Amino acid sequence: MSAEAAFQSGLLEHLRSDPGVTAQLEARIFDQPRSGVRYPFLYLGRAESEAADACEARLIDLRQTLLIRGRRDDSETIKKALGAIREALDASPLTLEAPYTAIHPRLVYADLFSTSDSRIVQGLARVRTLIQIQGDTP
After folding, report:
1. Tens of pLDDT along 26-54?
2. CA-to-CA distance for 85 and 90, rounded, in angstroms?
3. Distance separating alpha carbons of residues 46 and 64, to the nearest angstrom
4. Upper half-sphere CA count for residue 49 (Cβ side, 13 Å)
5. Cα dihedral sign, 27-32-36-39
6. Which residues, other chains included, contact 84 with Cβ-Cβ below 8 Å and sequence gap of 6+?
7. pTM over 0.85, yes/no
8. Residues 57, 45: contact at Cβ < 8 Å?
9. Cβ(60)–Cβ(102) under 8 Å?
10. Is 30 exposed, middle or buried (0-12, 13-18, 19+ CB in 10 A)?
């Protein structure tokens, strides 16, 4: 499994197990957008990664976008979900599949905006972390 796939899997599991996030989104946390799902729901967006090696440690700087789609009436719920994502990342460590470790994952950007469909709003959260391959030291 790649570092990116391990991070996405670990992040989704972390959010699904966090009571603050699930209080807002229930079980509607997915890897890809779904049709026929009740609003609001969260899914993975764009991921960017690049090598960030330092002092003989193999590190990857990863930025993952999370998207939350909802109806205009869901704006407050989406704002609360964005805050809950921040708290979930701050409150407990994010566990990844071996041999990867997430170093200081954090929410670095959050926004709520209208879409071209005036009935739909979208929340955006950008998570950033360093991923270390276990056995190396940062």
Report:
1. 999 999 999 999 999 999 999 999 988 77
2. 9
3. 6
4. 19
5. positive
6. 18, 20, 21, 23, 24
7. yes
8. no
9. no
10. middle
Q: How far is the C-alpha of 40 from the C-alpha of 75, rounded, in Å?
A: 9
Burial class of 98 by CB neighbour count within 10 A (0 to 12, 13 to 18, 19+): exposed
Sequence-separated (6 or more) residues with CB below 8 Å from residue 29: 12, 15, 16, 21, 22, 41, 42, 43
The answer to whether residues 110 and 124 touch, using CB atoms and an 8 Å cutoff, is yes
Q: Are 54 and 43 in contact (CB under 8 A)?
A: no
Look at residue 22 and give its three-state secondary structure: helix
**pLDDT (tens digit, 9 = 90+) per residue, 68-108?**
999 999 999 999 999 999 999 999 999 999 999 999 999 99
Q: In DSSP terms, which residues pair with 60 in a beta bridge?
A: 51, 131
Q: Show the tokens assigned to 84.
A: 């809950």
The closest alpha carbon to 102, from 78, 72, 76, 133, belongs to: 133
